[in-house]
Amino acid sequence: MGKLSKLSRLLIAVLFILLAVALVASISNSQNNNLGSTVRYIEALVFDNGYNDATTADEGAMSQQPFGRGFSASNPQNLGNTSDPNYVISFPEDHGAHESFDIEWWYLTANLQDEVGNIYGLQWTLFRFRNPNNEAREQGQTNVSTGSEPFNSDDTIKTPSSDWNNQHIYMAHASVHSASQHWFSEKFARGNVGNAGAETTPFKLFIDDWQWQSPTPGLLPATLAFNARLISDSTNISGISYLDVQLNLSNTGPYILQGQNGYSIKSANGKHASHYYSAPFIQVDGKFTMSDELLLSRVSEQYAPMKKSTEDETKTDDLLKHIAVKGNAWFDQEWTSQLFDQATLGWDWLSLHLDNGDKIMAFRMRLQDQPDYITGTYIQADGSTATLMPSDLSMDIIEFTELSNKKLPLQWALSIASKGLNIKIETSKDDQWNPALVAYYEGNVVVSGTHTGRGFLELTGY
Predict the structure, then answer these.
(1) E strand or H helix at 204, and its extent?
(2) What is the C-alpha separation between 330 and 237, in angstroms, rounded?
(3) Cβ contacts of 386 within 8 Å, gap of 6 or more
(4) Are strands 344-354 and 359-367 parallel, antiparallel or unpaired?
(5) How many CB atoms lie within 10 A of CB 205?
(6) β-bridge mates for residue 443, sequence order
(7) d(CA 391, CA 359)
(8) Which residue intervals define the domain AttH in the entry (predicted)?
């Protein structure tokens, strides 16, 4: 065989480059399809748009729709376990995951301040979603039918079982607000493969490097570590793009079983319900570290080849801003298969720390073609509780505010006649919207009137 001409060698080189590009594109497309499938499933779970495991033309498109669960409404056999009014919640066992239920969350909100009195609102949440559409794959079967007909065992082939073929998807949100800034990040992960979940002995909630860690089988005491990116800064301060959070959490009161001994009814007909408990007596202290991630990475690269001196470490530390914080936090854990359906429009939720030491949880469920269902719990400073039925409290909107092309109820009036309570609740700043895949409002509020205090407001479905 003779020598190849320069043109032939060039053509061969171009061919190899094109093959390499095609291979990389194929791998990337596969990964994007897997992520897209997860994203579409979570959208279907929370928004009434159904679930389809096929690739769509626009992966990123998501319109805000009323909360619902379209695929479950049409496939009721896929629903997970039903909340049971006779179930007895016990600890520490029920701090863990309840994987036979369709959705579960571990939810922390904290009202914090620094040493000079600046106020911060913090939220950290780990969600678990059960994907019933993955059940056949979990059993080692793959549907080879190309049509839309129901699954049939004659149309399957056996595939090797894998830990990745399981029903559980985790999502986490981290949010911190100051008066002028908002840090927010979200994460997604497959469950039961080691990078997200809830573990016991000792207790741990985690998704990647975001971790809630207790030294005991119990929920508390614990440390919480996460980070978030700056997404909004009304003061245009340069150099602060990243927030690292390290918190110590200690419990100073009892766990509170919401509703009827932890069975929380969300609608007048009782069809919407969950298992729900709270830890509203959490004391927090810790540290925020603000930094410019880009500058830090450049400094790290600059000094990586050589041994760092004390002077080098000082240069790095100059790029960081450390803030000590402390305050009160409220933790919720809730699990259900009966919260998202075609009738669910959304909810409005309040957790309040009153200055006299008392706590309040109030909840308004918005349902299609049904009256709003309002319930709550009044918690004395000593931990004693009174369940509030719809006739025991009023929760009224004072004013709507235009935000992100939405009208949101950011001022509320709450009255509980039996407690002599008549208060106004308003947000500490208007824009506390979480621009997540599942977007919602989660904001720091101030309480005034017959009682004073601080707390959190959550708005979904707007």
Answers:
(1) strand 204-207
(2) 31
(3) 377, 378, 418, 419
(4) antiparallel
(5) 27
(6) 457
(7) 19
(8) 103-337
Q: Is residue 108 part of a domain?
A: yes
Closest residue by Cα to residue 432 from 175, 246, 235, 195: 175
Region for residue 405 given its phi and psi (left: phi exceeds 0; alpha: psi -120 to 50; beta: otherwise):
left
What is the domain extent for residue 174? 64-131+167-459
Residues 277, 177: Cα–Cα separation, whole Å: 26
CATH number, domain containing residue 402 = 2.40.370.10
pLDDT tens, 137-150? 445 443 333 333 33
Residues 48/79/106/163 CA torsion (nearest 10 deg): -110
* Whether residue 299 has pLDDT greater than 90: no
241 assigned to some structural domain: yes
Residue 159 and residue 163: Cα distance in Å, rounded? 13
Report yes or no: 174 and 229 within 8 Å, Cβ to Cβ: no
Does a structural domain hold residue 295? yes
| β-strand pairing of 440-449 with 421-427 | antiparallel
In 295-393, beta strands by DSSP E: 320-336, 344-354, 359-367, 373-379, 385-388
Single out the residue of 396, 345, 365, 167 nearest to residue 266, CA to CA.
Answer: 365
CA distances (Å), origin 153, targets 141, 166, 169, 421: 9, 19, 25, 61
CB 46 within 8 A of CB 71: no
- Please state the domain count of the chain: 1
* C-alpha span between 31 and 10 (Å, rounded): 32
**pLDDT tens digits, residue range 337-385?**
988 777 889 999 999 999 999 999 999 999 988 899 999 999 999 999 9
Measure CA 197 to chain center: 13
Distance CA 406, CA 445 (A): 19
55 is a domain residue: no
The whole-model pTM stands at 0.80
Nearest residue to 378 (alpha-carbon basis) of 357, 364, 347: 357
CA distance 350 to 426: 11
Please count the residues of the chain: 462
CA distances from 289 to 210, 242, 317 (A): 15, 8, 10
| DSSP sequence for 88-127 | ---TTGGGS--TTSSEEEEEEEEEEEETT--EEEEEEEEE
